[in-house]
Amino acid sequence: MPNWGGGKKCGVCQKTVYFAEEVQCEGNSFHKSCFLCMVCKKNLDSTTVAVHGEEIYCKSCYGKKYGPKGYGYGQGAGTLSMDKGEALGIKPEESHPHYPTNNPNASKIAQKVGGSDGCPRCGQAVYAAEKVVGAGKSWHKACFRCAKCGKGLESTTLADKDGEIYCKGCYAKNFGPKGFGFGQGAGALVHSQ
Fold it and tell me: Where does the record place the LIM zinc-binding domain (predicted)?
């Protein structure tokens, strides 16, 4: 269909955008009323917009949909957020299958395999290009995951016990203090008579 009005087309509604109502972003034109986050529908401006392909998001929704996932990527200092954005229509990514350590003696330093370290999780050789060091052992990047939940780890986000590595959440849940007064939040000990 010919563009008789001569104006640019809105990146959202595909209708003509006239100069007085135009917002430009990444070479595309939008109506001010169409320049909204694709997920939560918040109004956007040049400081709050995040672009992914032809889609526009607020920085919060963009982070939930495309940002890093897992332990340590919460909303602020010391916060762990398990919100994956399902309430905003964001579909969680499929997780990779988790394979526990099959090394029969995982508590020892990984054995040498052909001049390179053996990965404690899969037993295969670990070469420099794929090597991650944690808990005193060399791991493949793909194998450097929590033994319980399978989350990818970093050397700063892991806890180890008996030669196995865990995310801090699973470590605390499985090996942390238990009993009266623990797990009630904010370090509070509650005693009622």
Answer: 8-68, 117-177
